[in-house]
Amino acid sequence: MRIGLLTAAPGHPLLAATAALLAEDGHRVAHLAPDQDPPEPAALAEVYLLKARTPAALVLAERLENMGVPVVNSGASTGFCQDRVRMARLAERAGLPFAATTALPDLAALAGRGPVRHPLVVKSRHSRRGDLVARVADDRRLRELADRWPGEPVVVQDLAPGSGWDHKLWVVAGEVFAELRHSELAEGERLPSRSVDELPYGWRELALHVGEVFGLDVYGVDILDVGGVPLIVDVNAFPGIRGQQGAPGALARLAVAVGHGLHRPRTLRPAVTGAGEPVPPPGGAAAPRGMAQ
């Protein structure tokens, strides 16, 4: 079977390890750069793994899908998760315990709303490498960021009273991997990540439900423990999943299953565009509102 990697970085540790496993089993792995045209029909792979988020990559993914080739994750789902406003709105409609999120045209608009009265988290509206993710505890910090990021559309969330550690959950076709990572917003020295022996009750099911809501097969979910209640603060399509034993194998098995037609890649549900009924919420207690990492 021919399996394609649609990415600008085929040497990424997750992809390289996955490609090695696939090659060991006799599969051919082909690299397709985001700025290329689709291959001729005879040279198409049976499935493409999309680890890229640039506009060119998303357009290419959708062109491949229109040619009848499955892509994991779909171009539509990957692009959707780059907009933190749409992400928050969909999560809210689906009943997910997602941090309450306010959209603003830029940080100057936030400064114009008055003094900072409690710690906030500000993020670029559009998720991308090197985007803005910062803690704002006072007006001085807000002015600094506004000067550095003029005109940047942002989202604002309240800072959650957490431990300073984020639960990083990664899912590959229903297999869940996890670690505790010291938050980039925590004060003081950044500490090494920690392994997770056991997730709190219901968190695995919550992570799996996120994939159903956002139409993803390979994704990450950042969750905070707020007084024993989970609070989702971010969802990422096809993250790096570095250092997680078993992740390359899970990804290789997923690619083969899709290529053989045994698994149909997920994509966004009609609820995203307002058609049909909203995605039903998972069971369990609701999370605190108005908080973020």
What portion of residues is helical? 25-40%
Strand order of the largest sheet: 11-10-9-12-13
Q: Strand percentage, roughly? A: 15-25%
Secondary-structure class: alpha+beta
| Quaternary structure of the protein | single chain
Largest sheet at a glance? 5 strands, antiparallel
Low-confidence stretches: 273-293
* Distance between the amino and carboxyl termini: 43 Å
Kindly provide the radius of gyration, computed on alpha-carbon positions and rounded to a whole number of angstroms. 20 Å
Order of helices and strands: EHEEHEHHEHEEHEEEEHEEH
- Strands, total number: 13
- The shape is globular
User: Average pLDDT value?
Assistant: 89
Structure description:
Helix content is 28%, strand content 24%. The chain is built from 8 helices and 13 strands. The longest helix is centred in the last third of the chain and has 13 residues. It is globular.
